[in-house]
Design a protein that fits this description.
- The protein has eleven helices and 15 strands.
- The chain has an eight-stranded parallel beta barrel with strand order 3-4-6-11-12-13-14-15, surrounded by six helices. Strands 1-2 form a two-stranded antiparallel sheet.
- The protein is of the alpha/beta class.
- A hairpin with a 2-residue loop joins strand 8 (about 130-135) and strand 9.
- The structure holds flavin mononucleotide.
- Flavin mononucleotide binds near residues 298 and 299.
């Protein structure tokens, strides 16, 4: 099998990448409780700059959008100052880096919100699973439904975050519309029971994602904006699937294609549960979008080589393999075995398991 295509350059909208290997967004919970990254993050991302594209860990666009403890933000100037050395380090090593913009919606806890406020959501439906707080893992709090008039403010928060990401020197941004967070909560009819223009029809449920993309593209140009979705995953927050996932996400993908977005990035199937190829018609989604496609979820060298050689995807995003293998690109190129990272150091802590490797 040809191993050419995985290691050949590509162009995602206006972003030139030197290979087809992306580092998937990975929350590592090592920032301060104020969302300010520490210098460790500079080393961590710099170590992984041989990826064609780094997609940062999900980054809070606002105080309200925050979930897990110690996750970074991009809503104050201190956040910008802490991210700037990260983008410098990646660029100095010849890499490209986009920031994943995140509002968690109902996947939060009152202890993480300003003045103990309830998290916000399309509808007052409590999420399952748990969130990482300063007091450990706790069930998400009961959210309150956003008033229609509040939604424009959230779009503004995305716009400001996009501006700050630009000031911090990123190459673009990825809108996080996957994994059970706010934008996906609006997309799915299981979590969106609204009766205003943000609920009901597919067009209405996709409205917030499209307004956010439009705002962010106004800052960056659409060719430096990507979007991540996970139509067939329930993994975060036990979020039930939409009743017509292909139609809902197909509509969104088509509209994003019309806007000329840099790329579409999909978690194929159930997060951490294989590629779900049997249920997920990736090619239909790609066709609806019509632009560059980044595939993710459980890829290894063999599947990644196949997927790019066969044209299944333009790029492959690797998550866990990048935690344990900062030199993943070289390892894949030379077919050297990979280290398995220790799950105990995925979230929180310091250098151990982050910039200093700990084997499983
Ligand atoms: C520690 C950890 C943190 C993650 N954080 C994020 C995140 O911030 N944003 C996101 O979209 N996905 C996140 N994910 C999901 C990964 O991006 C990816 O979809 C998942 O790990 C499957 O890919 P893999 O099999 O290559 O690891 C996270 C996964 C892990 C293991």
């Amino acid at each position: 099998m040809s191993s050419e295509s995985l290691f050949t350059p590509f162009r995602l909208g206006a972003i030139d990448v030197r290979n087809r290997i992306a580092m998937a967004p990975l929350t590592r919970s090592r920032a301060g409780m104020d969302g300010v990254q520490t210098p460790l993050a500079v080393d961590y991302y710099g170590q992984r700059a041989s990826a064609g594209l780094i997609i940062t860990e999900a980054t809070n666009i606002s105080r309200q959008g925050r979930s897990y403890a110690y996750t970074p933000g991009i809503y104050t100037d201190a956040h910008v100052d802490a991210w700037a050395p990260v983008t410098n380090a990646v660029h100095a090593a010849g890499g490209r880096i986009v920031m994943q913009l995140w509002h968690v919606g109902r996947m939060s806890h009152v202890s993480l919100q300003e003045d103990g406020a309830a998290p916000v959501a399309p509808s007052a439906i409590q999420a399952g699973g748990n969130v990482f707080t300063e007091a450990g893992h706790l069930p998400p709090s009961m959210p309150r439904a956003l008033a229609t008039e509040e939604i424009a403010g959230i779009v503004e928060d995305y716009r400001s975050a996009a501006r700050r990401a630009k000031a911090a020197g990123f190459d673009g941004v990825e809108v996080h519309a996957a994994n059970g967070y706010l934008l996906e909560q609006f997309l799915r009819d299981s979590t969106n029971h609204r009766e205003d223009r943000y609920g009901g029809s597919i067009e209405n449920r996709a409205r917030l994602s499209l307004e956010v993309v439009e705002a962010v593209a106004g800052v960056w140009g659409a060719d430096r904006v990507g979007l991540r979705l996970s139509p067939f995953s329930t993994a975060v927050g036990d979020t039930p699937l939409d009743s017509t996932p292909m139609e809902t996400h197909g509509y969104l993908a088509r509209r994003l294609g019309e806007m000329g977005l840099a790329y579409l990035h999909a978690v194929e199937g159930q997060l951490h549960g294989g590629n779900g190829a049997a249920t997920f018609d990736v090619q239909a989604l790609r066709a609806a979008f019509g632009g560059a496609y980044i595939a993710n979820n459980g890829y290894d060298r063999h599947r990644a080589l196949n997927a790019t050689a066969s044209g299944h995807a333009d790029m492959i995003a690797f998550g866990k393999p990048f935690i344990g293998n900062p030199d993943l690109v070289e390892r894949l190129r030379s077919d050297v075995p990979l280290h398995e990272a220790a799950a105990a150091t995925f979230f929180g802590g310091g250098a151990e398991g982050y910039t200093e490797l700990v084997r499983a």
